[in-house]
TrEMBL record:
The modification 2-(S-cysteinyl)pyruvic acid O-phosphothioketal is found at C117. Residues 8-408 form the Enolpyruvate transferase domain. One of its GO terms (cellular component) is cytoplasm. GO terms for molecular function: UDP-N-acetylglucosamine 1-carboxyvinyltransferase activity. It is an enzyme of class 2 (transferase). This is UDP-N-acetylglucosamine 1-carboxyvinyltransferase. Its main location: cytoplasm. Keywords: Cell cycle, Cell division, Cell shape, Cell wall biogenesis/degradation, Cytoplasm, Peptidoglycan synthesis, Pyruvate, Transferase. The active site is at C117 (proton donor). It holds the Pfam family EPSP_synthase. The keyword Membrane does not apply. UDP-N-acetyl-alpha-D-glucosamine binds at R93, R122, P123, V124, D125, L126, D307, I329. The keyword Cytoplasm applies.
Length: 427
């Protein structure tokens, strides 16, 4: 298995182009199932996860054309199979996003239950309850969700008892083809949902309230093809902003939007990082000030994103003073802590909170990635740690960051990917 080897200590300088958002692409790609006409998606990031979604759609009979490196043309006119098999769903939980579109369009779907993952139990009960409210009959057996609907789904009012990004996306994609009006209350407001909504509108859907907690959808009988460009990845943007900050460097992030990460920018500024925003670009400059500890609590958008918590913790390990990091979305998302401790960090976890006391130096060490964002926090720590850090199990990184080493290398980082040997295959 491949590893990443880093030698820390270089202040990053340069420019990083931000890719399309993984989480938006993973919701937009299944939207192709809602129509017989082609859906052309540009700015799709080339990641293990988007390849898994391609494999899943291909398995169902969707024609997937690759127009150029980041443009896909998806045509679901010939869908033959409405099953999402365990082998693909277990590789990527977001596979469950085919459920809403499949049952809305074909009146049936059989989707493997995703199961738990490294960061917690992560049930899909709310996805199912929202679909049931629209008249879908759901049965669980042999590890699969069997969903059926006799005719068109029925518009319904559903209030999510808890904010869920995937649940909102599945319900939204189902509601666009339902008979009548659907109102989704306490819907997630993440920008990726707005992006999905914009694409669905381009396909002929009638949706109001995008970007708010209440979505009102007037179902239509059919949707048509469309073209849509995936919005920039706010978590990649935030990760590279932290890379600049943790190395006390100065990096310009291009092809992105500051309004997607207002809360991260706000916390960076409070920590002493200078962030300048101009059209489509962000300049992150940590060359002038000492950095101070700043507390965060993860929250649904527009709060501080849980997908930036691990990276923020790495940064706080290098700041002056202490910071309190509270994880309120996932119950088991401090897997990076033991690894950061191996690099000389001073962190104490008390249930959902961690107290991080800045240390004068992190020290390079061999560490192991456990999930996607935990992996990026270890790379960030390695960028500033004294000596050599090797990060194992980087297949997690490949799920969510496009050309990570290349982009860091271009800013002066000492980073390389080491191809794994067969002996490590059992990792
Ligand atoms: C999405 C993102 C992920 C991000 C997360 C929270 C994608 C592909 N992934 O994941 O990167 O970390 O949002 O911003 O977009 N829950 C339930 N029942 C459900 C659904 C969720 O209890 O039916 C709980 C989850 O266990 C979790 C919380 O709700 O505690 C939020 O999860 P959710 O927003 O659904 O996350 P995902 O859509 O899986």
């Amino acid at each position: 298995m491949d590893k990443i080897r880093l030698v820390g200590g270089t202040a990053l300088r340069g420019e990083v182009p931000i890719s399309g958002a993984k989480n938006a692409a993973l919701a937009l790609m299944p939207a192709c199932l809602l129509t017989d006409a082609p859906l052309r998606l540009s700015n799709v990031p080339r990641l293990a996860d988007t390849r898994t979604m391609t494999a899943l759609l291909d398995h169902m009979g969707v024609q997937v054309g690759q127009e150029d490196a980041s443009t896909l043309v998806l045509n679901a006119a010939g869908v033959k199979d409405t099953t999402a098999p365990y082998d693909l769903v277990r590789q990527m939980r977001a596979s469950v996003l085919v459920l809403g579109p499949l049952v809305a369009r074909y009146g049936q779907a059989r989707v493997s239950l995703p199961g738990g993952c490294a960061i917690g139990a992560r049930p899909v009960d709310l996805h199912l309850r929202a679909l049931e409210a629209m008249g879908v009959e759901i049965e669980l057996n042999e590890g699969y969700i069997n969903a059926r609907s006799a005719g068109r789904l029925r518009g319904a009012r559903f209030a999510f008892p808890k904010v869920t990004v995937g649940g909102t996306e599945n319900a939204l994609m189902a509601a666009v083809l339902a008979d009548g009006e659907t109102v989704l209350e306490n819907a997630a407001r993440e920008p990726e949902i707005e992006d999905l909504g914009q694409c669905l509108k381009a396909m002929g859907a009638k949706i109001e309230g995008l970007g708010t907690g209440t979505l009102v959808i007037e179902g239509v009988e059919r949707l048509h093809g469309a073209e849509h460009s995936v919005l920039p990845d706010r978590i990649e943007t935030g990760t590279f902003a932290v890379a600049a900050a943790i190395t006390r460097g100065r990096v310009t992030l291009t092809n992105t939007r500051a309004d997607l990460i207002d809360s991260v920018i706000d916390h960076l500024r409070r920590a002493g990082v200078e962030v300048t925003v101009s059209d489509g670009a962000l300049v992150v400059d940590a060359t002038r000030n000492d950095l101070q500890g700043v507390d965060i609590q993860t929250e649904p958008f527009p709060g501080f994103p849980t997908d930036m918590q691990a990276q923020w913790m790495a940064l706080m390990c290098t700041a002056d003073g202490a910071s309190l990091i509270t994880e309120s979305i996932f119950e088991n998302r401090f897997m990076h802590v033991p690894e950061l401790l191996r690099m000389g960090a001073n962190i104490n976890v008390h249930s959902a909170s961690a107290i991080v006391r800045g240390v004068p130096k992190l020290l390079g060490a061999p560490v192991m990635a456990t999930d996607l964002r935990a992996s990026s926090s270890l790379v960030l720590a390695g960028l500033v740690a004294k000596g050599e850090t090797t990060v194992r199990r980087i297949y997690h990184l490949d799920r969510g960051y496009e050309r990570l080493e290349e982009k860091l290398l271009a800013c002066g980082a000492h980073i390389e990917r080491l191809a794994g040997t067969g002996a490590e295959a059992a990792e």
